[in-house]
Amino acid sequence: MAFCAYCGNQLAEVSYAPCPRCGNPSNGAPPGSIQRPVPGKSSNTAMIVVIIVVVAFLGIAILGIIAAIAIPNFMTAKERAMQRRTMSDLRWMGTAIEAYATDNNRYPKAATMEELQTVLTPTYTKTLAIRDGWNHDLRYEAWSRQGQYDSYAVGSAGKDGIWEHETLQEYTPGSTTHFDCDIVYSAGSFIQAPELRQR
Description:
Number of helices: 2
Largest sheet: 5 strands, mixed
Structural class: alpha+beta
Helix content: 25-40%
Order of helices and strands: EEHHEEEEE
Strand content: 5-15%
CATH architecture of the largest domain: 2-Layer Sandwich
Distance between the termini: 98 Å
Shape: rod-shaped
């Protein structure tokens, strides 16, 4: 049996809980060390939960805004990198083709990129790209205007992989504005490419 240290009231256990008779802590703690609950005043737990939920939603909203800005910029940078790599490969290929023409007085006769690769490697270049930055097949064409294979062009169909013309001879000089646009290189310069002024 347990009894209140203040009034001797019989209790189930002695603790800091107030005695039902005298209101003091039943274990003999100093009076006033227990705050009695104020009638009608609700717990702060609901308020804490509301604040946590609001903060969580704000965090999600901020992450969404950051993602909406960052993801398109990342995708554009990725496409631009593929485009620049393709332009670099075409320029390098043109250099190897020009070196071949210097030795042979004509541009290589090849119907496919694989045939061109066989003709140019390893004498004029160690490696030759046959696919663009988007993993589409590149194209090479050589033709005659004044003699035997005195003109050539190499090109990429761009991001969409769809050629705008049947042959590379049909392209006219101009700048492109989209990643889907074809990129064509001939005779030491780009015929069609983004930012054509940056050769």
